[in-house]
Amino acid sequence: MKLTSRAIHRDLGYFYVGLILSFALSGIMMNHRDSWHPEKYTLNITEIQKQLPKEDSITENYVKNYVNTELGIKDKVKKHFVRKGKLKIIAENHEVEIELSSGKGEIIAFTKTPLISQMMTLHKNTSNWWIYYSDIFGLSLVIIAITGIIMIPKGRLSFKERGWKLALAGIVFPILFLIIFA
């Protein structure tokens, strides 16, 4: 088997097609996670009325105990914070928001969206072995890009004649975006 840029490009593309699609789709979803929550979907929203102590008494231990005993939620509490007069508690399968002054709030129960949740976990994962695999994937994308450039060596569709213009536009656009919006 002859090792050409076309063969390298093709075989790396075949090998990584699943990961490329997963990263592309989960990346699009992550871009819009402030507008919607693709990783999870709501099962139930329950209105509640619970009195809370003063803000300085709301500690991590208080929240964990409060969630388990007062609210009856058996999830692991991930984080909590007070913002704009509301206590927000984020657990594995629940989110709770309660106004400190009135005690009015809601409990949102949700579940993970199959497949989408797993794709987004891959995109955000930072475990050691996954970082190394992602580094290899990143290098493979560089090779896919380079072999794509040199795959057509001559003619009107070659990198020398046409491809460099598209590549330059592809580089300039993100730089302009960073200069204007960053």
Order of helices and strands: HEHEEEEHHH
3D shape: elongated
Bin the strand percentage: 15-25%
Q: How much helicity do the residues have? A: 40-55%
Radius of gyration: 24 Å
Low-confidence sequence ranges: none
User: pLDDT average, as an integer?
Assistant: 88
Strand order of the largest sheet: 1-5-4-3-2
Question: What structural class results from the helix and strand content?
Answer: alpha+beta
How many structurally independent domains? Answer: 3
* First-last Cα distance: 48 Å
Q: How many individual helices?
A: 5
Largest sheet: 5 strands, antiparallel
How many distinct beta strands? 5
Question: What keyword list fits this structure?
Answer:
182 residues; 3 domains; 5-stranded antiparallel beta sheet; 51% helix
Describe what this molecule looks like in 3D.
- By secondary structure, this protein is of the alpha+beta class.
- The chain folds into 3 domains: 1-38 and 115-151, no CATH class; 40-112, no CATH class; 156-182.
- It is built from 5 helices and 5 strands.
- It has helices at 5-31, 60-70, 116-124, 128-150, 159-181; strands at 40-49, 77-83, 86-91, 94-99, 104-112.
- A 5-stranded antiparallel sheet has the order 1-5-4-3-2, with helices on one face.
- Helix 1 packs across helix 3.
- The protein starts with a helix and ends with a helix.
- The model has no long low-confidence stretch (mean pLDDT 88).
